[in-house]
């Protein structure tokens, strides 16, 4: 017999789900937790299927019967009502899908493949520029002129580098949407055509090798934290990126083997980097170990030991020492590169020490040589030459012969 409203209302839950049948495949499933779910059993292409029609009492008996008739009409036309429902649901999702939702899906998918610094920067651009600008807009309705306007607002702040990153992230997000089938085109293509003219390239300032003794002397005479002193000296002796040093963990170091292994996840190129440690660097690290060895990080933050020192700490210390506009933490890499190239060291050794890829893309793909033994010699000679210079030796005498 067909169902009645009174029968539905008085139906009580049991230990197991049970059915109250209506007609033509429609039935109500009563679950142990008391939920009452409308279901339609039907057959298509010889297969039996079930279609969810809603929850009682939100969907009344009369509405459930109406949905059953709609489904039967679709079946009469050879349409699978279950598949049709999925298509309609997906279409509704795509119509209302916002840029913020797509951007966060893109970030969640890609961030595990990035270096930590890349993921952090991408998150900043999302939160500070992209989502506040167009996050609430349905992604399928966003046009290229809108994106041009968004980028121009960033350029208006004088942040041309940030504007370039914003163009890059927009292009990647819409490519992700295109591959996912949620957009039909990529409105972020060719945004660079309207980019503001680039400013002159600003190099990281650095002093000359001859000026290094004075800087090293000021490290001890200026009122800065001992951890900062150690960090600056280690940058001079290793030429790693400041971010790689700040986030260094004690487990990465083999002080007996004079080697520091930076994992790929922390490297800009996502490639493990071996750093030979001259004896002078090992001495500093052993002294530092007595101070921070109980923490995972070499340079724990003053407020939170589980986070590294601020990225501004080293440059702020250099400014206090009187080197504002003359030397930055990153600039020590330029100093080493300039000096060792002048001394005619092999370019491959210098570039590998700096963790740079090869300009030849094919060679970079296949050449994974670390040149560690040769770099150990080079970096020990570098450290010794600094000691000799500080001791007053003739600069010419410590330059490597060609």
UniProtKB/TrEMBL annotation:
Coiled-coil region(s): none
Record GO terms (molecular function): DNA binding
Domain Tyr recombinase: 202-379
Key words, A-Z: DNA integration, DNA recombination, DNA-binding
Domain Core-binding (CB): 97-178
Keyword Iron assigned: no
InterPro entries: CB, DNA_brk_join_enz, Integrase-like_cat_sf, Integrase_catalytic, Integrase_DNA-bd_sf, Integrase_DNA_bind_dom, Integrase_recombinase_N, Phage_int_M
GO biological process, one term: DNA recombination
Stretch forming the signal peptide: none
SUPFAM superfamilies xrefs: DNA breaking-rejoining enzymes (SSF56349)
PANTHER family assigned to the protein according to its UniProt record, in alphabetical order: PROPHAGE INTEGRASE, PROPHAGE INTEGRASE INTS-RELATED
UniProt family annotation: Belongs to the 'phage' integrase family.
Protein name: Integrase
């Amino acid at each position: 017999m067909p169902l009645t409203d009174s029968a539905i209302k008085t139906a009580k839950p049991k230990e197991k789900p049970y059915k109250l049948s209506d007609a033509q495949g429609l039935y109500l499933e009563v679950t142990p937790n008391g939920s009452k779910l409308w279901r339609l059993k039907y057959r298509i292409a010889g297969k039996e299927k079930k279609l969810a029609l809603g929850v009682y009492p939100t969907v009344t008996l009369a509405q459930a019967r109406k949905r059953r008739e709609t489904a039967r009409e679709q079946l009469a036309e050879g349409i699978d009502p279950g598949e049709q429902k999925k298509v309609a649901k997906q279409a509704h999702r795509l119509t209302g899908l916002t840029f913020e939702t797509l951007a966060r899906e893109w970030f969640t998918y890609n961030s595990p493949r990035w270096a930590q610094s890349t993921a952090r920067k991408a998150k900043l651009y999302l939160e500070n520029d992209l989502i506040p600008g167009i996050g609430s807009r349905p992604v399928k309705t966003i046009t290229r002129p809108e994106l041009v306007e968004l980028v121009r607002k960033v350029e208006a702040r004088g942040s041309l580098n940030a504007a370039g990153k914003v163009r890059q992230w927009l292009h990647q997000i819409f490519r992700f949407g295109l591959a996912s089938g949620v957009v039909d085109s990529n409105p972020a293509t060719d945004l660079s055509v309207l980019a503001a003219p680039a400013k002159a390239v600003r190099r990281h300032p650095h002093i000359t090798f001859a000026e290094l003794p004075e800087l090293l002397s000021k490290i001890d005479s200026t009122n800065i934290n001992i951890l900062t002193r150690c960090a600056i000296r280690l940058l001079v002796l290793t030429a790693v990126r400041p971010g790689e040093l700040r986030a260094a963990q004690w487990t990465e170091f083999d002080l007996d083997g004079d080697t520091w292994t930076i994992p790929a996840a922390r490297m800009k190129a996502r490639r493990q980097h071996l750093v030979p440690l001259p004896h002078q660097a090992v001495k500093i690290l052993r002294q530092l170990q007595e101070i921070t060895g109980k923490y995972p990080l070499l340079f724990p933050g003053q407020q939170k030991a589980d986070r590294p020192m601020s990225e501004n700490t080293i440059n702020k210390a250099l400014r206090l020492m009187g080197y504002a506009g003359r030397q930055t933490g990153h600039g020590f890499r330029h100093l080493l590169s300039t000096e060792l190239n002048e001394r005619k060291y092999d370019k491959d050794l210098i570039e590998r020490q700096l963790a740079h890829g090869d300009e030849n893309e094919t060679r970079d793909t296949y050449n994974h040589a670390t040149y560690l033994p040769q770099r150990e010699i080079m970096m020990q000679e570098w450290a010794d030459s600094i000691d000799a210079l500080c001791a007053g030796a003739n600069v010419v005498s410590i330059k490597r012969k060609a």
